[in-house]
Specification:
Length: about 130
């Protein structure tokens, strides 16, 4: 099922990868409207906005990973997409109303992310 989610994300975003942002061409070239992206998934897809603390953690994972381009991820926030019944998921970087450069995350990393309690958000997405 994660494979289905990953394929759907890749197909719907149709990005050239994170390299254009790293090369200074701008993150918008690899982004899609977030509302449009969310509308493409079924009711079994869960989307969670990462808190500030969780975002900075995954930002560090991105920077330290040998499989991602040099530099920071192409967003100022992030969402965790998961599908009911799957243990793995996908991080989608956000920049305002745009969704950018998805990266797969495994169950182990998801457990670490959700264990971070700093930077909690209220129901409107504002930091508490």
């Amino acid at each position: 099922m994660l494979r289905t989610l990953a394929i759907a994300l890749a197909a719907s975003l149709a990005f050239g990868g994170a390299a254009p942002a790293a090369e200074g061409q701008g993150a918008h070239a690899q982004c899609k409207a977030l509302a449009k992206l969310k509308a493409e998934f079924d009711a079994k897809t869960h989307v969670v906005q990462l808190t500030v603390g969780q975002f900075h953690f995954v930002e560090g994972v991105y920077v330290g990973s040998p499989s991602t381009p040099d530099g920071l991820p192409p967003g100022d926030g992030a969402l965790l997409f998961s599908h009911e019944g799957d243990k793995d998921g996908i991080i989608v970087w956000t920049r305002g109303g745009l969704a950018c450069a998805p990266i797969p995350v495994n169950e182990r990393l998801i457990k670490l992310i959700v264990g971070i309690k700093t930077g909690a958000l209220d129901g409107d997405g504002n930091e508490l």
